[in-house]
C-alpha cells in the first residue's frame, strides 16, 4: 500500500450518508476509537431524529457536503439505493482522490463502488453481521461482531484496522461470494425473527401469559446447540419421525393460525431431509412423516392422520 492509500488509523474526519440504523452506530464506534464525525445526511424525520440522538452536535447536511467535509464516508443506505447513490456522487464530482468510501451492504462487494474508484476514491465493503435497533445498544453489540469484508488487496490493512477499531472481527468475503454470504445471513437472522414472532403469537393463543419467558431459555439452548453441533442438534417430532404429532400440529395450525401452515410445512420438510441425511431420522419412519408433509396434504388429510394417532 502506498502512502496515498494508507489511511491514518486515528483522527479521520467521518461522514455518514444515510442516517438509518447502521450509519450512526458505526460513526459512534469510530468516534470512540478516536475518529471525528463531522457530517451526516438524512431525509426522513426518523433519520433526522436518530442522527440528533446518536451524533449530537454533528451537522445535518446534503450528501455532497458530507463528502466535502469527510476523509472517510460511510454509505449506509438500502442495498437497492446504493448503485445510483455512488453513480450520482461520482457524476457530480463530489468524490475526492484518496477519500475512503465505505458501504455496509451485505449484498455488494467493491464493484458497486467502481464509479467512486474511477474518481480516485478508495473502496471498502464492510458489512457488520449484526441486527441494528438504531439505539445506543448497537454500539455495544459491535464488540466481537464479525464484519464481512471485501477490499482491494492494497486496502486490506486499512479495512482490517477500521473493523478492529469498531470492535469487530474482519472476515474476508470474495467479491463473487457476497450474494451467497448475504443470503446465508438473511436465512438465519431474518427468518429467525419471523419464526420467533409466530411462535410467541401461537403460545399467546394457547394461553401462555409470558411467551417470551417460556421461549427465551429454550431458544437460547437450541441456538447454542446448533452453533456447536450443527445438524447433530436436531430434535423434536420431525427428527424423531413422529408423524402423528406432526399431523396434529398441522391440524391445529390450520384451525388457529392458517397463515403459519406453509412455513411450518416447508421448514419441517427441510428438517426431515437433513435429519435423514445425517442418520437421525430412521428411514422406516420417514415415509409416513413425509406423507403428512406432502405439498398436497389438505386439511382433511392432516386432521385425519392426527386424530388417529393422538
Fill in the keyword field for this structure:
310 residues; alpha/beta; 14 helices; seven-stranded mixed β-sheet; single chain
Walkthrough of the structure:
- With 310 residues, the protein is α/β, with parallel strands linked by helices.
- It has helices at residues 22-32, 45-54, 63-69, 82-91, 114-118, 137-141, 156-165, 178-205, 211-229, 237-240, 243-256, 261-277, 283-292, 299-309; strands spanning 13-17, 36-41, 72-75, 100-103, 122-128, 146-150, 169-172.
- It has a 7-stranded mixed beta sheet with strand order 2-1-3-4-5-6-7.
- Helix 1 (22-32) links the parallel strand 1 (13-17) and strand 2 (36-41).
- Helix 11 packs parallel to helix 13 and helix 11 crosses helix 14 (299-309).
- The termini are far apart.
In the sheet with the most strands, the strands line up as 2-1-3-4-5-6-7
Shape category: elongated
H/E element order: EHEHHEHEHEHEHEHHHHHHH
Largest sheet: 7 strands, mixed
**Beta fraction of the residues?**
5-15%
Helix content: 40-55%
Distance N to C terminus = 69 Å
Tally of DSSP β-strands:
7
Structural class: alpha/beta
Residue runs with pLDDT of under 50 for 5 or more positions: 296-310
Integer-rounded radius of gyration: 24 Å
Mean pLDDT: 91
Helix count, per DSSP? 14
Amino acid at each position: 500500500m502506498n502512502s496515498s492509500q494508507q489511511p491514518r488509523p486515528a483522527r479521520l474526519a467521518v461522514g455518514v450518508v444515510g442516517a438509518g440504523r447502521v450509519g450512526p452506530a458505526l460513526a459512534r464506534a469510530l468516534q470512540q476509537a478516536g475518529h471525528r464525525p463531522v457530517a451526516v445526511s438524512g431525509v426522513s424525520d426518523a433519520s433526522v431524529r436518530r442522527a440528533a440522538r446518536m451524533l449530537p452536535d454533528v451537522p445535518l447536511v446534503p450528501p455532497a457536503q458530507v463528502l466535502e467535509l469527510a476523509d472517510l464516508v460511510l454509505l449506509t443506505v438500502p442495498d437497492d439505493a446504493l448503485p445510483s447513490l455512488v453513480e450520482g456522487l461520482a457524476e457530480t464530482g463530489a468524490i475526492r482522490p484518496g477519500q475512503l468510501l465505505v458501504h455496509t451492504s451485505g449484498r455488494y462487494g467493491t464493484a458497486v463502488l467502481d464509479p467512486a474508484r474511477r474518481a480516485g476514491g478508495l473502496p471498502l465493503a464492510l458489512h457488520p453481521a449484526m441486527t441494528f435497533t438504531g439505539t445506543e445498544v448497537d454500539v455495544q453489540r459491535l464488540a466481537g461482531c464479525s464484519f464481512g469484508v471485501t477490499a482491494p488487496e492494497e486496502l486490506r490493512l486499512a479495512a482490517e484496522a477500521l473493523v478492529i477499531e469498531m470492535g469487530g472481527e474482519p472476515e474476508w468475503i470474495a467479491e463473487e461470494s457476497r450474494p451467497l454470504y448475504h443470503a446465508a445471513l438473511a436465512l438465519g437472522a431474518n427468518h429467525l425473527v419471523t419464526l420467533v414472532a409466530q411462535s410467541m403469537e401461537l403460545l399467546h393463543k394457547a394461553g401462555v401469559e409470558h411467551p417470551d419467558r417460556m421461549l427465551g431459555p429454550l431458544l437460547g439452548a437450541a441456538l447454542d446447540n446448533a452453533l456447536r453441533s450443527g445438524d447433530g442438534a436436531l430434535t423434536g417430532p420431525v427428527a424423531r419421525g413422529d408423524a402423528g404429532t406432526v399431523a396434529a400440529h398441522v391440524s391445529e395450525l390450520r384451525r388457529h393460525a392458517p397463515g403459519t401452515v406453509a412455513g411450518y410445512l416447508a421448514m419441517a420438510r427441510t428438517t426431515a431431509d437433513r435429519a435423514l441425511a445425517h442418520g437421525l431420522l430412521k428411514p422406516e419412519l420417514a415415509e409416513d412423516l413425509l406423507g403428512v408433509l406432502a405439498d398436497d396434504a389438505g386439511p382433511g388429510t392432516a386432521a385425519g392422520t392426527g386424530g388417529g394417532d393422538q
